[in-house]
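Section handout, structural biology tutorial.
Before the tutorial, make sure you can parse a SMILES string by hand: atoms, branches in parentheses, ring closures as digits. In the record below the ligand is zinc ion, and the chain has 311 residues. In the tutorial you will relate the predicted structure tokens back to the input. Do not try to memorize them.
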Amino acid sequence: MTFINEYTTYCAICGGPIEDPDLDHGWLSQAVLLHSSTEFPNTQISELPAKNKGGPYFELLENAEAVTACNKSGSVLPSPRPLYIACHQKCVALAKRAMSTQEAASHRNLDGSMQHLWHVFKSLFDEASEEKLGPICNIYSAQAYGDIWRFQELVWQPGNGPELRFDSMHFEADPKDIPDMTSSILLQLQMLPVADLNSSSSEPSELPPFKDLSLECTAHSSSRAWREALAHGYLPWLWDLEPDVVAQKEASKPLGQEWNWELLVRQLAQVHLHEPRAVIEDLPMGLRNRRRIWRLVEDMLSEDSTEVVNF
Ligand SMILES: [Zn+2]
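Predicted structure of the complex:
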């Protein structure tokens, strides 16, 4: 259960609330403040672990300094207030992983660096604070975060309809450490139709790029190739699948039948994997959140970076 009020500060990466650690809400309470003490083009981004003290107020863990996130100063101050952008620690880690992915960089022509991400956030902050002084609790357009307004407007108390809650639960699921992720994903594996049992190629064949992969199986590559690729990082947001668990699943196939690994990989590659009831219904909530955040980072760093995602 998450507590949100009008003073809540939201993570610049995932759009979820940053919470008081005393409430013990796990990853939602583990904050980092991004900060640059130097200006473009020599921007150096510091990542400062911090404790939320309510609303936009934080305490830096390294020296107990009190700072305010996304705080715009007026012209009466001799120098502008330093800018701190608030994020969850795990979202920063996920963003770095997404930015370091070769496939993402080559596909979108990204400059995958924290400096680039900082400049995106700075642009969004300048836009959000154009007509307002003081702290800004979020720096994004609402539609940019995959309908996260549903989550932010939700009052978490008895009486919420299960439908509404289901549509919003993934926003607060830990996107990095996902319990039993591999076995949960493999529960979705289907058997290859009998008619297709001998249709798949036995020749080694390079898999197509995972970007824009359709749901249509071609059998141009062997089922083994799809399985091995899945287990070893073909889909970069599934870097932590357990190859042993994948191998055990393969060994469990009924006599005379084959798992449809190609279909599973194609399903997992879909951009809208995060949406409720999209492509695969019963994915772990954390994985849905991870895929959502991964795409957000890619889109933030795409060429027109302030025109954030249109889900
Ligand atoms: Zn976040």
